[in-house]
Amino acid sequence: MAKRDQESNATKPEGAASFAELAALLAELGRNFYGRGWALGTSGNFSAVVSREPLRLAITATGLDKATLSADQILQIDVEGKVIEGVGRPSDETSLHLAVVRMRGAGAVLHTHSVWSTLLSEAHAEAGGMSIEGYEMLKGLAGVRTHEHREWLPIIDNSQDMPALARSTEAVLRQHPNAHGFLLRRHGLYTWGKDLAEAKRHVEILEFLLEVTGRTYSMSRRGAHTAGLSD
Ligand SMILES: [Zn+2]
Taking the chain, what is the end-to-end CA distance rounded to the nearest angstrom? Predict the structure, then answer.
């Protein structure tokens, strides 16, 4: 515990949160996401940048029940994913977090396993992604000023080969420089932000939009079915 109270020697921007502060915030966020059904069981993982030079990330350890996530279950890792503070093994998907931080300059990366991201990532997999447009809630995404915005959410085939998955992620991020997130097929959502608050907002916005899109599709199918029965 004493170690956790020590400030890292690494450089961090003025006013930026310490590792201990970020660990507490990530734990609180994990419990909150569990409560909303976005990180059930041991699913999901969350990270925030502690410092850029050298790169240090606060990230959830693997295999944790998010319902009871606590600050001492958050690890500090370096640019290679090596643990430099805390007990446990970092998430299996650490290389994806590092890829997003490197390529987007993100201050936080959040990954959920919601029902809607799982369903829609399969439904739109053949198209390589899905577009969401015309909703007021799109304005919750950084830089989006109008509901007329068209958000393209790329979909990446899932894999247990993490180096390969990190390479696919890098390729998709390069190909879609304006995307605010991406889906892993039959797996879940990744999004990020300049800081933890923005990343959390992006999860809320994208999860809302995914649910609206999914429910709209089910309602139209049910409508068509009902109409068919009454003919
Ligand atoms: Zn996952």
Answer: 69
Q: What spacing in Å lies between the alpha carbon of 44 and ligand 1's midpoint?
A: 5
Q: What is the pLDDT of residue 231?
A: 45
Q: What is the CATH number of the domain that holds 211?
A: 3.40.225.10
Q: Tell me the average pLDDT across 220-229.
A: 67
Higher pLDDT: 221 or 36? It is 36
Mean pLDDT (whole number) for 212-226: 82
Report if residue 85 sits inside a domain: yes
Summarised one tens digit per residue, pLDDT across range 91-138 is 889 999 999 999 999 999 999 999 999 999 999 999 999 999 999 999
- The boundaries of the domain holding residue 120 are 2-223
- CA–centroid distance, 22 to ligand 1, in Å, is 21
**Confidence (pTM):** 0.90
In a domain, 231, yes or no: no
What is the Å distance from ligand 1's center to 92 Cα? 8
- Residue 168 located in a structural domain: yes
Q: Rounded to whole angstroms, how far apart are CA atoms 23 and 17?
A: 10
What is the 113 CA–ligand 1 centroid distance (Å)?
6
Residue 191, domain member (yes or no): yes
Q: Is 46 helix (H, G, I), strand (E, B) or coil?
A: strand
How many structural domains does the chain have?
A: 1
Q: What is the pLDDT of the chain when averaged over all its residues?
A: 91
Phi, psi torsion values for 40, nearest 5 degrees: -75, 160
| Mode of pairing for the β-strands spanning 74-77 and 83-85 | antiparallel
CA-CA distance, 116 to 52, in Å (whole number)?
Answer: 33
**Closest residue by Cα to residue 29 from 45, 49, 12:** 45
